[in-house]
Write a structure and sequence with these properties.
By secondary structure, the protein is mostly helical. It has a single domain, classed as Orthogonal Bundle (Rna Polymerase Sigma Factor, Chain: A), CATH 1.10.1740. It contains four helices and no strands.
């Protein structure tokens, strides 16, 4: 077996966890994010990390709990990053030039009219 191949027992464990635990993992992550799209992304990331982590470190005793922990931590990380980005971006009051407002989508481009 090549090192890049995922062992069959890991694939079976992930498939079983997906069938039995996916809804619970997603629900727990939605409670943290209050955003279904973000929660689904984080749960998908958790399953992808399981494909990498479980062959190297073994299948956890409670795969659903492992997936929930990873998904929730990923969600918290993404929420923290979004908060930091919002804090570090310049405020909308500093965007006073028409070009800045146009780039930000807060002003329409000027229309020129031709007189006949």
């Amino acid at each position: 077996m090549r090192s890049s191949e995922t062992p069959p027992e890991v694939i079976r464990a992930i498939a079983r966890a997906h069938n039995e635990e996916w809804a619970y993992v997603l629900a727990a992550t939605v409670r943290v994010t209050r955003n279904l799209d973000l929660a689904e992304d984080c749960v998908q990331d958790a399953y992808a990390r399981a494909l990498v982590n479980w062959p190297a470190n073994g299948i956890p005793r409670r795969p659903g709990a492992w997936l929930t922990t990873v998904a929730r931590r990923r969600a918290l990380e993404r929420l923290r990053r979004a908060t930091t980005l919002a804090r570090k971006l310049p405020s909308s009051s500093s965007m006073t030039s028409p070009a800045c407002r146009l780039r930000a989508g807060t002003q329409r481009p000027f229309r020129t009219t031709v007189s006949a």
